[in-house]
Design goal:
Layout: E1 17-20, E2 37-38, E3 44-45, E4 49-51, H1 60-68, E5 72-75, H2 82-93, E6 99-100, H3 112-122, E7 126-130, E8 136-141, E9 160-161, E10 168-169, H4 174-184, E11 188-192, E12 198-203, H5 204-210, E13 227-230, H6 237-245, E14 250-253, H7 261-270, E15 277-282, H8 285-293, E16 298-301, H9 311-315, H10 321-339, E17 345-348, H11 354-362, E18 367-370, H12 372-375, E19 385-393, E20 396-408, E21 435-439, H13 444-461, H14 467-473, E22 475-478, H15 481-486
Parallel strand pairs: 4-5, 4-18, 5-13, 10-11, 13-14, 14-15, 15-16, 16-17, 17-18
Antiparallel strand pairs: 1-22, 2-3, 6-12, 7-8, 8-9, 11-12, 19-20, 20-21
Length: about 500
């Protein structure tokens, strides 16, 4: 008799598959492709993107930007103090399009050379000038100084002083801000409270951008949607309640292994708070069924598939992400047919390219949760800087200077997220993650649309106009190693 210890499945990754094109009709062109999807049975996103609950990935700035484009972020818990997590979630919920609350400020006694350095790293060209108490005293724009001539001067010698500025009042409407910006003639409006403290800044470019997000996801009060993460530890119930009270649309249980009694008990506790609960992570139909039976509203799929995750090497636990997603999708379809309730599959990890994204959606993912992809954007919480990194060029090792951002896993030596990994003592923490750098990619507002366009192009070439049709109709074929290599490039770029 065959040994049942070994499954008949072959554990596969997204990169092992390729999609076969079909005839594209006129109504299936890129402009007609709809990327909306379910995040729970009753809630939808306008794009299938979700940011991971990681300190190096998701903060309020990224959560705002992603929601504006139709996705959803998960504000991390882990080593983030409960009050800091709440502050980030509240910032998303009180966000008013066009009003930037977190801006980089400078002091009037700062050398302009330091401002030039800030501009080089962050890409900003305008900086509010504040005193030690945060009171607005002026504004420095790139038009007011020459980087070659004025580097040794102080900000106060080149800034526009407060009495020369048009200033907005905290609580004003975007329409009023728009009118004042035109009066100022400089395209920037600092907004202060009654004490003169800087509260936000309105940029003319952001006012234009505020009208460029018809796909933004909002709640019943027209606030951007956002999720909050909690652990399986009972003491996080208070954290969860506070997140819900602050407006969290979804609670996400952040755990490395979701197939456990800890997860079962956590779901049951969280469901009492009245918002949907996303649970995970699992890799097979049994794990999916277990979480759904205990009330989960969406399931995170993936163990050991993240770019900085070493779980498979350390514990030999996990599954190829393509196989894991497809098996859980089959369980989802079966459960939906049986009960009429749709429990989405969230693919967490294993994505390196837009092609991987398309394959993940083709094999059954409803939503793609990503960490590394979002970590490189300007809106992620870490600070970019220049670093020399070794690269192979024409068979020779060379060093190039590039702009990077720090990136680390929740099981890395830096994070040691004991709650996520059910470990109680940081001193004996089993390392299952790494830390390093990702290339800086500029603003999410510029980078994300390119990724979405690539996915829309895939659907169009496969003769599909929406994700549901894509999953049902597209043909998926396994590739050989040589086929994967053939589909790459062999040129060297200058």
């Amino acid at each position: 008799m065959e040994n049942e210890k070994f499954t008949s499945e072959l554990s596969s990754t997204f990169r092992e598959y390729i999609l076969l094109p079909r005839c594209t009709r006129h109504d299936q062109g890129i402009a007609h492709v709809d990327l909306s999807t379910r995040i729970t049975h009753d809630l939808r996103l306008n794009i299938p993107f979700m940011s991971a609950a990681m300190e190096a990935v998701t903060g309020d700035r990224l959560a705002i930007a992603l929601a504006q484009h139709g996705g959803m972020a998960v504000i991390p818990a882990g080593n983030v103090p409960a009050e800091d997590q709440l502050d980030m979630l509240r910032a998303v919920k009180r966000f008013k399009a066009g009003f930037v609350e977190k801006v980089i400020t400078v002091s009037d006694d700062m050398p302009i050379q330091k401002v030039i350095d800030l501009e080089r790293v962050h890409g900003y060209s305008t900086f509010p000038v504040v005193d030690k108490k945060g009171k607005l005293v002026g504004l420095l724009t790139e038009k007011k100084y020459n980087p070659w001539r004025d580097a040794e001067l102080l900000v106060k010698e080149r800034m526009l002083p407060l009495d020369k500025l048009v200033v907005g009042k905290h609580g004003m409407s975007l329409g009023d801000a728009n009118r004042l910006i035109f009066e100022s003639g400089i395209g920037v409006l600092p907004v202060v409270d009654d004490k003169g403290l800087l509260k936000s800044v309105v940029f003319f470019s952001d006012i234009r951008r505020a009208h460029q997000f018809p796909a933004g996801v909002v709640d019943g009060q027209k606030r951007l949607r956002v999720a909050g993460a909690v652990s399986t530890h009972p003491e996080d119930q208070e954290r969860a309640k506070n997140l819900v009270d602050a407006g969290a649309d979804i609670l996400v249980v952040d755990a490395s292994d979701g197939f456990s009694q800890y997860m079962q008990e956590t779901i049951q506790r969280l469901k009492k708070l009245g918002v949907p609960v996303i649970a995970g992570n699992v890799v097979d139909q049994a794990g999916f069924d277990f979480l759904v039976e205990h009330g989960a509203d969406a399931i995170k799929v993936g163990i050991g598939s993240g770019s900085i995750c070493t779980t498979r090497r350390v514990k030999a636990i996990g599954r190829g992400q393509a196989t894991a997603v497809h098996q859980c999708a089959l369980a989802r379809d079966r459960y939906f047919k049986k009960t009429g309730k749709y429990v989405p599959v969230i693919s967490d990890g294993g994505i390196e390219s837009s092609g991987d994204m398309s394959v993940a959606l083709a094999v059954g993912a409803d939503v793609l949760m990503m960490g590394k992809y979002f970590a490189g954007f300007e809106e992620s919480p870490t600070t970019s800087f220049m670093k020399r990194l070794p690269v192979m060029f024409s068979g020779q090792l060379a060093e190039v200077e590039v702009t990077v951002k720090p990136y680390w896993g929740e099981a890395s030596p830096r994070a040691k997220n004991v709650k996520r990994y059910q470990q109680d003592d940081p001193r004996s923490f089993v390392i299952e993650g790494e830390e390093g750098y990702v290339l800086y990619k500029g603003s999410l507002h510029k980078g994300l649309p390119r990724e979405l366009m690539a996915i829309k192009g895939t659907l169009s070439s496969c003769g599909c106009s929406n994700l549901e049709e894509f999953y049902k109709e597209v043909k998926v074929e396994r590739q050989t190693v040589e086929s994967v290599r053939e589909g790459g490039t062999s040129i060297f770029r200058a």
